[in-house]
Design brief:
Layout (H helix, E strand, L loop, with lengths): L7 H11 L3 E6 L4 E4 L1 H7 L3 H4 L6 H4 L8 H4 L6 E4 L8 E7 L4 E11 L5 E10 L1 H36 L6 H31 L8 E4 H18 L3 E5 L7 E4 L1 H17 L6 E9 L2 E8 L6 H4 L10 H6 L7 H11 L4 E6 L3 E9 L2
Parallel strand pairs: 8-10
Antiparallel strand pairs: 1-2, 1-6, 3-4, 4-5, 5-6, 7-9, 10-11, 11-13, 12-13
Helix pairs in contact: 6-7, 8-9, 9-12
The structure holds adenosine-5'-diphosphate.
Length: 361
């Protein structure tokens, strides 16, 4: 028996009526063939005004087309963020226009005939202006709160640091001052992470990429971690590559933040008397750095969420109150901005190895 077939045109029109996204179809010559009700609302134009019209680049510059034309010709938009690989369909971009400020997610697919020849395009447009403004006010709040907290936290850190060195202090008081100093440093780390994440989300986290020799850089990072390692009774080792230098292109300050987070975690989530081994090797045109610990390990379920913002394992939350779940999210962002990869392998009860790569200079 033949399969029952629904009339395709009716099916398309029904779909176009029901979806909550604007839908626009045009042919190879940019003549508009379909324009649904949501598109009418969004672009303040009637379907009967647009259907059958050919949108040349000159026409696209006319005032009544001002919010529709950058969606069709993204080159006319003041800001375009590509969210899918160039050349591959469906193409997904974010288009931002000003006066008034509007943000759209635009997915474009090519419509081909039976022989595969392109006949036209279909666009699905989602208005994300309101969502974007919520995200903006949330990051503004975080950025302002973190800025306000940083000054007093720096002062508290400085006071404990000075107190710790005061020769007139008794043993007990000195221990308290040391604890205060470590707590203030942790607080500053959380504030710095929050500020950096607010910047990443606003797209203001600029990178200053310069040639960098990884070997002395990693040496210095491990030296910085020595006091915390001592405090947790953890030994930290560096397995050097058999070459004197490994040149990469990196933003030194940001890469340091990323690696310090990994080393900090490897120390903090370790056992007393445990080890942290950092290794650097050169492989497939990249430097591969790993940070291995002998700590509690991460469950398979948690491994899936480990790089998410605010994620902390339940077991860790019980034993270690300090921590924000921001470190690995930030680290992943930084490594990916360096065109590197980051991943983790872990066995519960045995420990974890975090790996990342940075392309060679
Ligand atoms: P934080 O350490 O502030 O909680 P992170 O983003 O650095 O935040 O880490 C998120 C979570 O991942 C931690 O709370 C912990 O549960 C887990 N984790 C990270 N590194 C390790 C590690 N080396 N060993 C075991 N668990 C880890």
């Amino acid at each position: 028996m033949e399969k029952p077939v629904l009339p395709e045109r009716a099916l398309f029109e029904s779909l176009a009526r029901m979806i909550d996204e604007a839908l626009i179809v045009y042919d190879q010559n940019f003549t508009i063939l379909a324009f649904n009700a949501r598109a009418e609302d969004l672009f303040k134009m009637r379907a009967r005004e647009v259907i059958g019209q050919q949108i040349s680049l000159e026409k696209a510059r006319e005032p009544q087309w001002r919010s529709l034309s950058p969606v069709i010709y993204s080159s006319l938009a003041p800001t375009v963020v590509r969210l899918s690989d160039a050349g591959a369909y469906p193409q997904i971009i974010k288009v931002i226009i000003e006066n008034p400020h509007q943000e759209f997610f635009v997915s474009t697919d090519q419509i081909a005939d039976a022989s595969g020849a392109a006949q036209g395009f279909i666009k699905v447009v989602r208005d994300v202006t309101r969502e974007a403004s919520f995200v903006q006010s949330k990051s503004d709040f975080i950025a302002i709160a973190a800025h306000q907290l940083r000054t007093p936290a720096t002062a508290v850190n400085w006071v404990f640091e000075a107190l710790e060195k005061d020769p007139s202090l008794g043993d007990e008081a000195r221990q308290s001052a040391q604890m205060g100093h470590v707590a203030a440093q942790n607080l500053l780390k959380v504030i710095t992470n929050l500020l950096n994440i607010a910047q990443i989300e606003e797209g203001r986290f600029g990178y200053d990429m310069q040639p960098l020799d990884l070997i002395p850089f990693l040496d210095a990072l491990l030296a910085d971690a020595a006091p915390v390692a001592r405090q947790h009774d953890v030994n930290v080792y560096f397995e050097r590559p058999p070459v004197p230098s490994v040149m990469v292109i990196a933003d030194q300050y940001k890469l340091a933040l990323a690696i310090a987070n990994l080393v900090d975690n490897a120390i903090k989530y370790n056992v007393s008397g445990g080890q942290v081994v950092m290794r650097a090797i050169v492989k497939d045109g990249a430097a591969e750095v790993s940070v291995k610990d002998t700590g509690a390990g991460i469950s398979e379920e948690d491994l899936l969420k480990i790089f998410e913002k605010f994620f902390r394992a339940e077991t860790i939350k019980k034993t270690s109150v300090e921590g924000s779940g921001l470190g690995l999210y930030l680290t992943k962002n930084i490594i990916e901005a360096h065109k590197g990869k980051i991943w983790v392998e872990s066995v519960i009860g045995r420990g974890s190895v975090f790996y990342f790569t940075v392309p060679l200079a």
